[in-house]
Amino acid sequence: MAEMKKVTALVGYEGNTQTIEYEVPAGEPGVWGADYGFDIAGVKDIPRLDAIDKVTGRAKYSYDINRPNMLEAALVTCPYAHARIGKVDTSAAEKMPGVKAVEKFPNVEGQKANYAGWLIAAVAAETIQQARDAARQVKVEYKELPFVYDYESAMSEAAPSIRSGGNVTEARSRDKGDIDRGFQEAEVIIEGEYETQVQTHSCLETHGCVAEWNNGELTVWHSTQGVLSVAQAMAKAFSSEGLDETKSRCITQHMGGGFGSKFGPEEFGIMAARLAKITGRPVKLMLNRYEDSVMAGNKPASRMYVKLGAKRDGTLTAIYAKCLNIPGHSGGASVNVPFFEHYDCPNIKVEEQNVYINAGNARAFRAPGRPQGSFGIEMALDELAKKLDMDPYELRAKNVSGSLYKAVPYELKLGAERFGWKEKYQKPGTQTGRFRRGVGCAVTFWASTGSPGGAVVRCSLFSDGSVEVANCSQDLGTGHRTMMAIVAAEELGISPEHVKVSIGDSSLGLKGPASGGSTTTPTVAPAVRSAVYKAKQKLFEKVAEKWKTTADDIDCQDGTVFSKSDSSRKMAWKEAAALIRKDTIITLGEHIRGEVPEAGTGAYGAQFAEVEVDTETGKVRVIKIVAVQDVGKTIAKAQAESQMCGAVIQGVTSALLEDRIMDNMTGRQLNANLEDYKILTAMDTPEIEPVMVDVFDPINNASAKGLGEPPYIPTAAAIGCAVANALGTPVRRIPFTADMILAALQKKEG
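User: That's the sequence. What structure does it adopt?
Assistant: Structure tokens below.
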């Protein structure tokens, strides 16, 4: 058993802190607490390490990879929403100019295509145009089948079954307390139905890769959130041909968005590798925008019946929800967490079913299931506040609880103050005139605590004073490289510019998480700190030897190594590093929690929105969002603010614009492009005020939490509450289109 040492840390958040004592392995650092003297992390605005590369075009995305003698590939996909695939004739395509290979997807003949975009075959040719021309020459026999395109058609008695077991799954339930007793105790009850739409991921860089074989080894430059998972999946796919994980490599230098849809190689990625093996040449296969929209994943729609019960003073007694989640032809969704985690209520029950339709797979999409559930509970809560004649902010404040690591009461209060809620709030229905202002608020929760043992980081400390930290994780665009450099620099007391970060390459051979779930930072940051701390201790031993003291007497700060007992003894960082000589210090670190008596369960937050509604045109304009978020310990200040703003922007676009439109006559997506599929532009972006709350939490040694997802969860709900406040009538479906707004006004006014 490892030797342990006792450490102390000041944990909690402003106005609610406590000193705790706990044990960690002797060779590991204690947690960064509120009393730690930070010089860089959360203090200085450190530019992204890759900023210049990105703005100058030096940064290489998968789309930018061009290998010598490379072929381009195009796909053949099913044009029907539901069809039986018969004979696939590739002979004409094989004779087309420039064509080097035409391959059918495995066992495609006889399969049932469950959506328009189903993979049939792929063509590799000298140019992408030649590949596309040849793909059009592949002849496929289809037998069209009846299809379902929305939950209503999927649930009708005459609906064709698109999968074994039927279109609707058995109900699954999550319970707390006694829901019947909760409604019996209620003095006020409200109920309503709320809907959220399907969103496609719409990554700026579509899915795909470049695949190359060399002496039995495979390298793929893949647009992926997980270099290790892709390398491992490729090894498995070609294991019968002698490929194992030691010969399978995935590189992702930079990627243009993922949002939860880019974890594996996918069938088309494996096909790219297959074509490369057949032809003996590198092959690039990147999806076009239509293919990316229909097959690469979507955020499921949800239809929620919500019923709330409360005392007349606003105390919640019961929360019930029955949810239909519409993921596509496969995948699933779970929206129950906000109903349980956002507010304290003794009696809760959520029932869920998936309803499958003839559309592409559901995929994780920035906090999967949470924005949908947040919209349901928050909109219902505002309707309850109206019936109680109660300020919706006060209703929320009454029904949240806080603790040492749960700062949501503080975050709600802080957000209301920064937003000016007291001055801006008016009772719903009191606004008049053409342009009506409204305000709304909502809370958020995400379990962004990372995975102990989920990362191994290597730190190399060189005699010239430079440092390298390496790990098989990937930067999704969040500034992961910069975060790693800041953690290392903070621990060593040097500038981040002296830290080299190596990630995005499975050949590094270091365990690392896929970049997703807001787990990357809380998993990798403590491993970085652990590795760097160990390297620092080894350097201190060399300094201590020179000064005839002990390593415990040595410390470092501001580029200087010094004796804690003798102020006359100090040297520059580079001078200390020179003591290494030719013996590079190399250490490994992991995320090790130690014996922490208590720690948090995730990150909470609150958001406030102000909107203006044009009652003549139905246009909704979001004026301002104040987003208050528990970030654990702020590490990269500028990147954290950027993350929060990006999440809010995506929340605004889901509230106002994004919606997959399916044709009821053909079952095809009508807006599978970025001309008709609307997303927010710079002109539509509101003022966003990110407010980061440091909650020092011994969940890991860096008090680090993920930030990609939680600020996205409540945005659409806060906007929805603001719209209802402006109109004085419920609006229960997003996106808030002009026709929906005008219809709500007409219904209200008779």
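DSSP finds 19 helices and 30 strands in the chain.
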